[in-house]
Write a structure and sequence with these properties.
The chain is of the alpha/beta class and 240 residues long. The protein has seven helices and twelve strands. Bound molecules: NADP nicotinamide-adenine-dinucleotide phosphate.
């Protein structure tokens, strides 16, 4: 079984499949991250070298099935994996947790991308975004006063003078998030609708502070079979 990692669930999926009789697990990560060491098997690291590299890998490693446990917003790898597995006749499924749903007191708006999120920002607003450095270009028409963008790694130069990178490595508690938003005088949040419990704290902090939140909708799932959680993934593997 090839487990494509990237989502928080990937570790439990890999551990669970490895414990099932008759399965050996290979884990693949796009890059080394702080959680790579927590896998039950040593992950292989880095891209496969495009579609043909991925096909070669599946063949040479004699992969019998693929579980895509990449991040809900990793659209390219998920689409390609679905396409290639279908073409090769390999069993394949995507582990995809549900997106967040609002509770009383939340002030949320949903948009398709960062550019659409910018259209909701008012001129004087100081905005905190957690959409990742790779989304920077989507903010080029940002109309607000300042955009604070959380950055997991080192702070590197950015192409827009309205952007300030805020270094930080989660998970963060609700009170840590509240402190950050208060210290920076934040008026609005822009986040990806990633779902899950670990990074929900920023939404709880926003609710407590009465801040509006713009959520970027996730891409449409690429796989024909979508499994909501680890136990559904393990049931599927047992059924193969
Ligand atoms: P992407 O656009 O869907 O994929 C870009 C390329 O990264 C792929 O074509 C592939 O390279 C390589 N790749 C992605 N996942 C891989 C894996 N598990 N193993 C080996 N190679 C992989 O993905 P992305 O949005 O840039 O995200 C990159 C990685 O970070 C993903 O694994 C994702 O799960 C994780 N991540 C993404 C987000 C997000 O918001 N997008 C957030 C947190 C974590 P080749 O073509 O060379 O094979």
């Amino acid at each position: 079984m090839l487990v494509l990692g990237g989502a928080a669930e990937a570790r439990a999926v890999a551990r669970g499949v490895g414990a099932l009789r008759g399965w050996r697990v290979t884990v693949s990560l796009a890059q080394a991250d702080r959680l790579a060491g927590e896998f039950s098997v040593v992950p292989r690291l880095g891209g496969f070298g495009g579609a043909s590299g991925f096909q070669d890998f599946l063949r040479t490693q004699q992969i019998n099935a693929v579980l895509d446990a990449t991040h809900p917003f990793a659209a390219q790898i998920s689409a390609r994996t679905a396409r290639i597995c279908a073409a090769m006749g390999l069993p394949h499924a995507q582990v995809l947790r549900s997106g967040w749903s609002s509770a009383p007191g939340d002030n949320w708006q949903f948009v398709p991308d960062e550019a659409a999120a910018c259209a909701l920002v008012h001129r004087s607003e100081r905005v905190f975004a957690t959409t990742g450095r790779a989304t920077l270009r989507g903010y080029r028409d940002f109309p607000g006063a300042r955009l604070f963008l959380r950055r997991l790694g080192a702070v590197t130069p950015v192409p827009f003078d309205f952007v300030e990178l805020v270094p930080g490595q989660g998970p963060f508690t609700v009170s840590e998030e509240q402190e950050t938003f208060c210290a920076l005088n934040i008026d609005r949040l822009i986040v990806k609708n990633s779902g899950g419990t670990t990074s929900r704290t920023k939404l709880d902090a926003a609710r407590a502070l009465g801040l509006p939140v713009v959520l970027i909708e996730r891409p449409k799932p690429a796989a024909e079979l979508v499994l909501k959680d680890v136990s559904a993934a393990l049931k599927w593997v047992e059924s193969l």
